[in-house]
Design a protein that fits this description.
The chain is mostly beta strands and 279 residues long. It has helices at 6-23, 31-34, 75-82, 137-143, and strands at residues 49-52, 55-56, 65-67, 70-74, 85-89, 94-99, 102-107, 112-115, 118-121, 127-129, 132-136, 147-151, 156-160, 184-185, 193-205, 208-217, 222-227, 230-234, 241-249, 254-261, 264-271, 273-274.
Length: 279
């Protein structure tokens, strides 16, 4: 994808006009913005513990955290304690977990996980905290067939062996009997997207952004890109390659690719890599 071609030229023309307009505004208009803002200190994080079969798991360099009522834990110590394999793809910011026949994929900042070809919605996505990948512990443990409880008095996540495999995707909030047990959305998954070839890039200048996604899919598949709940159709070349570009406001960090063929679907969750022009 050529992010520095015609798309950027159009973008720079818009920015030039915007800068000219800013230059005509009296400097007094910026005096209020020049004053330093007072930032309130963050509330202290309550200490959270995690136990597996009544033995506490140690987190040496990043403690578990609570985000939006969900407990997130660094993935490596959990993997070592529960005995599963974990891999990290820096390019796609994807965590892949394998244990026996189970395969789980999570993309950092995405509220969608994939278990054995099934799409599962998450209340809280995996995140990067202090250069460590933290994941929703209840989802991970139950997806790998462990029992998970929460002790509010001691602020402890209790993980144990032997859980009903159907308990997948539940998290720490009490279950509402009026609601379904999970938010699973089952779709038949096939390999239509060459996930290693997918690249998302963005050029951001002031409030304008140029976004591009390139890669390769099945030449016979239909393809769409989803950005901030907006869906865009993408032309696929005869060899399966594609090049999607879109001008819109800056600040978009992630995208979703959906390829379909003969009633079957493949989904890829990706994150844009910024290439700021520094204007």
């Amino acid at each position: 994808m050529n992010l520095f071609g015609n798309g950027v030229n159009v973008l720079l023309k818009k920015v030039t006009s915007l800068l000219l307009a800013i230059a005509l505004v009296p400097m007094a208009a910026f005096s209020a913005a020049a004053a330093p803002a007072t930032v309130a200190p963050k509330a202290a994080q309550t200490a959270v513990k995690v136990e597996y079969n009544k033995r506490q798991i140690a987190f040496p360099d990043q403690a578990p955290i609570i985000s939006q009522g969900r407990t997130l834990v660094p993935i490596r110590p959990i993997a070592e304690s529960l005995g599963f394999e974990v891999n990290w793809n820096e390019k796609t910011r994807t965590v892949t977990i394998n244990k026996g026949k189970d395969n789980i994929r999570l993309v950092v900042t995405q509220k969608i996980a994939n278990k054995n070809g099934q799409t599962i919605n998450l209340d809280v996505p995996a995140q990067i905290v202090n250069k460590r990948t933290v994941v929703p512990v209840r989802f991970i443990a139950e997806a790998l067939s462990y029992k998970v409880d929460w002790d509010p008095k001691t602020q402890t996540v209790l993980i144990a062996d032997n859980v009903n495999p159907n308990q997948v995707g539940q998290q720490e909030k009490p279950k509402d009997p009026a609601k379904p047990g999970t938010d699973e959305k089952k779709t038949e998954q096939v390999a239509l997207i060459d996930k290693e070839s997918i690249e998302g890039k963005t050029v951001n200048v002031l409030t304008i952004g140029l976004y591009g996604v390139t890669g390769k899919v099945d030449p016979q598949a239909s393809l769409v890109v989803v950005m901030e709940d907006q869906t865009y159709e993408v032309d696929v070349n005869s060899d399966g390659t594609f090049n999607f570009e879109m001008h819109t406001n800056d600040g978009i960090r992630t995208f979703t690719l959906k390829a379909e063929k003969a009633g079957k679907q493949d989904v890829f969750e990706g994150e844009f890599i910024s290439n700021d022009l520094g204007v």
